[in-house]
Every structure is written in structure tokens, then in C-alpha cells.
Amino acid sequence: MIEPGATIGILGDGQLGRMIVLAAARLGYRCHVYGPEPDSPAKQVTPYATTAAYGDRAALARFAAAVDVVTFEFENVPADTAEILAAIKPVRPGANALRIAQDRLKEKNFLRSIDVATAQYREVASAEALVRAARDIGPHGVLKTVRGGYDGKGQVAIRADTDLATAWREMGAELGILESYVDFLCEISVIVARGTGGDWAAYVPVENHHAHHILDTTIAPARIAPAVAMRAEAIARHVADRLELVGLLAVEMFVTSTGEVLVNELAPRPHNSGHWTIDACVTSQFEQLVRAVCGLPLGSPERHSDAVMTNLIGGDIERWREALAEPATKLHLYGKAKMAPGRKMGHVTRLLPRRD
Ligand code: AMP
Questions:
Q1: Distance separating alpha carbons of residues 187 and 201, to the nearest angstrom
Q2: Own/partner pairs for 30-33, CB < 8 Å, 24+ apart?
Q3: How wide is the angle at C-alpha 163 spanned by C-alphas 158 and 166, nearest 5°?
Q4: Please, what is the Cα angle at 260 between 258 and 262, to 5 degrees?
Q5: Per residue of the chain (356 residues), what is the pLDDT tens digit?
Q6: Which of the residues 59, 106, 110, 317 has an alpha carbon 20 to 30 A from that of 243?
Q7: Which SS3 state, helix, strand or coil, does residue 10 take?
Q8: Residue 92 Cα, ligand 1 centroid: separation in angstroms?
Q9: Which of helix, strand or coil describes residue 245?
């Protein structure tokens, strides 16, 4: 067990790191944040920081020597970064979860290998392969880069009249994946924590609404049938078990009109759709991560309130005054010095009486 007073190393210095640091501090841990930005959301809330590139071996080794356990808030770090660190200190979740979550093809292949349903997909390595893939899985789909895409970046919608050569160029990478278009009823996610002894705790499935490919609103709990919620939770638990994950896993899923649950994406870290847990649950996702990676007992994921979380994106940050004027709304700002369109600047959580 890594006891309070120890130092948790966090790779990545954004808002997720900031909220991990704040939760860890409440339990008496120190956090050392590693990332490329000097005045970042996470570094503003801890004096222990390394500002270096994710591939800087010497800086990584010094960082690992200074901490007791390493976790991350950002999974797109070079593959060997986690391995360099793991040779010195425990990295939780481990390099395997990282490798799978960074690569949409490995992710989908892994999910299929453990009998988890996904959209149909094909690997695509050229414009010609895209033509063949579209013939195989139908003309309505989404072409995505295999690596490095998030918040809809590197994605091109494909329809019957799309010029596939243009779509291939637009995607702008050497390797892609064509997924069949899922005509979903809603998008949900489940966040599950798994401890060092295989113990687990899952948050209730939540409903996610996107605007311009970026999460806009999370409604907790999701408005889905109890049987669908149970299936979603069972899937998330199954994936975490099979990854032998220690930490948090967010599983994004589509619910279809026939009640089918298809997994879209995995994130082995705290997730934007779990921010509501800070204000509405006994244990937040951030505290749960700290408990899991330190080998402490997991806390209760039970919610005492229902909640609606809305991101403050770009100019939405101006709404902070309105948020403060609402008695049942909690405001969270990330301390980002520069506002940019599409940049997550903060979020608000509106608490509602629990309905069930
Ligand atoms: P992703 O980056 O994979 O999370 O995709 C971003 C968003 O694009 C998702 O949250 C969905 O709204 C949409 N999307 C992604 N893949 C598909 C798909 N195969 N079918 C329908 N919509 C999709």
C-alpha cells in the first residue's frame, strides 16, 4: 500500500491532472506533475513539477525517482515512456492499457477478442483500401486516424456520395480505420475503478451530448432502461478485468434503438463525463483513482444527487458569474491563462434531487 504522505507522479498537466492533485491532497498525498507546459492547470496546484517533453529519458528517470507511483491523465504519450517509468516505479494503469487505448485498431481488435461488441470496422492503409472497406461495411461510416485523434480530430464522415480519395486525404494520416456509422439512440459512458486486488467500483452510466465533436453535457444518470444500464456496467467491468487494469477506465458506448450496447472508445484515466462525481457522489472519480493506484480500499461510487454537467468551452467561460448565482450549481475553472475556441476552460455541475 502506498500510504498518505507518499508522492503520486502524474503524466500530463491539464485539468484532469489538476483535479487528481486536488483529490490527492485531501487524502494527504503530494503530487508531482510531469508535462510540457510550465504554467499549466495541474502545475498551478502543486509545487512539485517537471516541465519536459514526454520523450525526455533523463527527465523521466528523475521524475520516476522522485515519486512512489505513476499514473497519467493523458494517454497519448510515446509508447516507451510508460516502459521507461515502469522499470523504476509502478505505473498504474500499466503500459498495456496505454498501448491499447492509444491505437483505435488495437483497441477494437482487443474488444473483439474479449467478445465486446463494437461498430463494424476495417483497417485502412490507402485510398484503395478505403474503397474496399466501404464496399465491405457499407457506404455510411466514419473514417478515423488510428493514432492521436481526440474530440473528433482526424475524423471524416463517409456517405454514399463521398469522394473516397478526398476523404482519405482529409483524414491526413498513413493509417486509418473505417467504422460503420452507428445510428445510435444515445451515447453513454461508464467509469469503473479497479484496485490492486481486482476489487472494483462503477459509477452509474451517464448520457453524453456532444457539440462540434466535443463533450458539451453529461446527464447523470443516463435515461436508459435498467437492463441496458446493467449491461453497460457489466461491459465496463469486463474490459477493466481483462486489461488487468489498476486505476480508472472510462468506456464510451453507443446505445442503439434495439437496446444494443456497442463500445466506441476506452480511456484508462479520469474522463470528462465523470466530472459530475466531484459534486454528486460519495467518492469522486479523482479520489477513486488515487485510492486505486495507491492500493487503498475503493470508496463508494454512490450518488447522493442527480446531476447535469456542462463544459465551459472557449467563450463559455464568461458564464462563470451566472453559474455562481445559481444556488445548486457548482463552478469549476481550470486556471487556463489563454482562452481559445474549442478549449475546455471549466465546467459547471447542476445538482438535482435524486429521482430513484
Ligand atoms: P470518438 O473520437 O471516436 O469518440 O468520436 C467522437 C464522436 O463522433 C462520438 O462521440 C460520436 O458522436 C461520433 N462517432 C464516432 N464514431 C461513430 C460511429 N461509428 N458512428 C456514429 N457516430 C460516431
A1: 21
A2: 30/5, 30/6, 31/7, 32/7, 32/8, 32/63, 32/66, 32/67
A3: 95
A4: 140
A5: 999 999 999 999 999 999 999 999 999 999 999 999 999 999 999 999 999 999 999 999 999 999 999 999 988 888 789 999 999 999 999 989 999 999 999 999 999 999 999 999 999 999 999 999 999 998 899 999 999 766 667 789 999 999 999 999 999 889 999 999 999 999 999 999 999 999 999 999 999 999 988 999 999 999 999 999 999 999 999 999 999 999 999 999 999 999 999 999 999 999 999 999 999 999 999 999 999 999 999 999 999 999 999 999 999 999 999 999 999 999 999 999 999 999 999 999 999 999 98
A6: 59
A7: strand
A8: 27
A9: coil
Note if the pTM is more than 0.85: yes
Q: Ligand 1 centroid vs 182 CA: distance in angstroms?
A: 8
Burial of 192 (0-12, 13-18, 19+ CB in 10 A): buried
Residue 107 lies in a domain: no
Nearest CA to ligand 1 atom 16: 142
Task: Give the count of domains, the chain.
Answer: 3
Last residue of a domain, one of 72, 91, 110: 91
Residues having CB within 6 Å of any atom of ligand 1: 119, 142, 149, 152, 179, 181-182, 187, 210, 213, 252, 264-265
Domain extent, residue 133, equals: 120-180
CB 192 within 8 A of CB 249: yes
Q: Grid coordinates representing 314?
A: 472557449
CATH number assigned to the domain comprising residue 222: 3.30.470.20
Question: Which grid coordinates belong to 349?
Answer: 455541475
CA of 207 to the centre of ligand 1 (A): 14
Whole-angstrom distance, CA of residue 173 vs CA of residue 169? 8
